[in-house]
């Protein structure tokens, strides 16, 4: 019997106990991520239908949105409680996107576990550097990234309040 508090990280799709359940769980995590981000940017929307089309596409069909990328999902008792996307390598570098942990499961090391698994996946993919961008008000996330070796670099993205970071792997 598995302890309900145990969290396992699996590659999606493929290793999850139920592909259908994991896709709906992943979609729910992505929706929460995007809704929270829009609210934090001061542009709250009532539901997924109010999100920009590119975000709705990720939520409605993650398999198509992240084709060629690696999606890792943290599962607790079979339920999706966290996710991260590692983009396909380009020029010896991958990017980490959509790192999110269900707020009810925060403080349990899920985000750091997902990030470590993402870095291992990047190494397996043959990259030498991993980059990411994070909103400057997400100080907890920035601290996590710094603990795992990321440093702030010159921005490759023109959006205000976005911090760009990179890590050698």
Question: Overview of this structure, please?
Answer:
This protein has helices spanning 19-40, 53-60, 62-65, 110-124, 139-147; strands spanning 7-12, 70-76, 79-86, 93-101, 129-135, 151-153, 162-168. A seven-stranded mixed beta sheet has the order 1-2-3-4-5-7-6, with helices on both faces. It has 169 residues and is α+β, with helices and mostly antiparallel strands. It is globular and about 35 Å long. It has five helices and seven strands, in the order E-H-H-H-E-E-E-H-E-H-E-E. 34% of the residues lie in helices and 28% in strands. Helix 1 runs antiparallel to helix 2. The mean pLDDT is 90. Strand 6 and strand 7 (162-168) form a beta hairpin. The longest helix is centred in the N-terminal third of the chain and has 22 residues, at 19-40.
Keywords for this entry:
5 helices, 169 residues, alpha+beta, 7-stranded mixed sheet, 34% helix
The helix/strand series, from N terminus to C terminus, equals EHHHEEEHEHEE
SS field, number of helical segments = 5
Strand order within the widest sheet? 1-2-3-4-5-7-6
Radius of gyration: 15 Å
| Uncertain ranges | none
What summary fits the major beta sheet? Answer: 7 strands, mixed
What is the tally of beta strands?
7
Mean pLDDT over the residues: 90
At a glance:
The chain is 34% helix and 28% strand. It has 169 residues and is of the alpha+beta class.
Give the topology.
Elements: E1 7-12, H1 19-40, H2 53-60, H3 62-65, E2 70-76, E3 79-86, E4 93-101, H4 110-124, E5 129-135, H5 139-147, E6 151-153, E7 162-168
Parallel strand pairs: 4-5
Antiparallel strand pairs: 1-2, 2-3, 3-4, 5-7, 6-7
